[in-house]
Amino acid sequence: MFGKKSENKPQGRIDSLIGAGTRVEGSLHFTGGLRIDGEVKGSVQAADGASSSTLVLSEHARIEGGVMVAHLVTNGTVVGPVSVTETLEMQPKARIVGDVEYASIEMHQGAVIDGRLLHSAGKSVELKSPPSA
Fold first, then answer.
1. Cα gap 29→10, rounded to integer Å
2. Which of 41, 82, 104, 117 has its CA 20 to 30 A from that of 129?
3. Do residues 67 and 82 touch, judged by C-beta distance below 8 A?
4. Is the residue at 30 inside a domain?
């Protein structure tokens, strides 16, 4: 009913923020929750064993590199492989260019994946870089 939280959606808090207009170059490793409103050129990964990690991408966010987290809620763009061990929620303006490995997925109308979808059934996965051209 009303006010009841979904049991399969991440409920974690956001511990860190990369604000709009901010550009980070290099790999990011985080625990807890991370929200990105800016740009990241490099991989974004939850620290080892962070099964409660949550990454939130606003519609202005852009990541050029691999993503490996437990929970991903995106309305932004990822160019690179994505590995989500728990839940992936793609909102209407979300775009992923690369292969997506997931355990559970929810796609809103308008979301786009330009790559392969690979169901992982919650197993541990390793982030792989795309082959060089």
1. 19
2. 104
3. yes
4. yes
Token look-up 């050029």 returns 64
> Which residues in the chain belong to E strands, given as ranges?
16-18, 23-25, 28-30, 33-36, 39-41, 44-46, 54-57, 62-64, 67-74, 77-79, 82-90, 95-97, 100-102, 104-107, 112-114, 117-119
The per-type count for the chain, helices as H runs and strands as E runs, is: 0, 16
CA–CA dist 80, 99 (Å, integer)? 7
Of residues 27, 31, 29, 28, the one with CA closest to residue 12: 31
**Helix, strand, or coil (residue 86):** strand
DSSP 41: E
The whole-number pLDDT of residue 11 equals 53
Q: What is the pTM of this model?
A: 0.82
pLDDT in tens, 68-110: 999 999 999 999 999 999 999 999 999 999 999 999 999 999 9
Is 30 in contact with 16 (CB distance < 8 Å)?
yes
Q: How far apart are the two ends of the chain, measured CA to CA in Å? A: 51
Residue 7 inside a domain? The answer is no
Is residue 27 in some structural domain?
Answer: yes
